[in-house]
Amino acid sequence: MITKQITRIAIGLALLIVASQLSLPIGPVPITLQSLVVLILALSLPLKEALTLHALYLVLGLIGLPVFANFTGGWAAVLKPSFGFILSFLVVCLVVEGMKKRHYPLWLMALLASLTIYLIGIPYMAWVLNGYLGHGLSLGQILSLGMFPFLIGDLLKAVLAVLISRRLRPLLESQTP
């Protein structure tokens, strides 16, 4: 990796960590700005850089650094209802890259990336709440905890991510080796 790539990864990682701490705890999954930054990074960065920074974020959190929401970290995070959403960030990078290659419009990439976060995060949350913790929640209750309160905010984040990425992508592409 060259210096520009390492710098972009470091800046993206720092943004993701800061966005994770801007949190409003409303239940088992807090409202954060993580998904906004994840979308911006996936839409704007090359796949290798986006995957690297999200993998670093995951590793830093799992080894115990307080990078996850509300300054948490460590292996115990794996058994939190919100951990599936964190895992989805890596998949979002792959999904967006596939759409970039097919020249999908940015707005569609952002919406499908947001959907990807839910498609991974919600079943994981259900597994933790029902399988591990034994709460016996219905699908409607799970969606009420992990999706419905976030839909409007995530739609706004997707719009913001598209607007920011439209400005950022040309700058980053002119610097990509």
UniProtKB/TrEMBL annotation:
InterPro entries from the UniProt entry: BioY
Primary residence: membrane
Alphabetically ordered keywords of this record: Cell membrane, Membrane, Transmembrane, Transmembrane helix, Transport
Signal peptide positions on this chain: none
Name under which the protein is recorded: Biotin transporter
Residue intervals passing through the bilayer: 31-48, 55-76, 82-99, 106-127, 139-164
Membrane topology: Multi-pass membrane protein
Domain of life per record: Bacteria
